[in-house]
Specification:
106 residues, 5 helices, alpha+beta
Length: 106
């Protein structure tokens, strides 16, 4: 795995962060809006957002006094590309199994 992908995979390793990504896929949100959907402190949510930003999975922009968090879907593309290797691995294994089963005369 390219070292540049490590922060993205670190961010994706946590279920809360994955849930935040799904939420941000629906709409941009402030820290307060994200915090309102979790039973954890605002500081804890901020840490999750920081990890997501370090992984380049979200971007943050200022709008007045607010910081707006947005999903960065393009950052998921290298992750998907890396994982696609394993899709091909399993596709090949299953195709070989199918061929073996269908070729078995019993």
């Amino acid at each position: 795995m390219p070292p540049a992908l490590q922060p993205a995979f670190r961010a994706l390793a946590d279920p809360t962060r994955r849930e935040i990504l799904v939420m941000l896929g629906r709409s941009d949100m402030t820290i307060g809006e994200v915090s309102a959907r979790f039973q954890m402190t605002r500081a804890a949510v901020k840490k999750h957002l920081t990890v997501l930003e370090e992984g380049d999975l979200i971007s943050v922009r200022s709008a007045g006094r607010e910081r707006i968090n947005s999903l960065n879907p393009n950052a998921l593309r290298p992750v998907t590309t890396w994982l696609s290797y394993f899709d091909q691995f399993w596709d090949d294994k299953l195709a070989n199994l199918k061929e073996t089963i269908e070729g078995d005369p019993t």
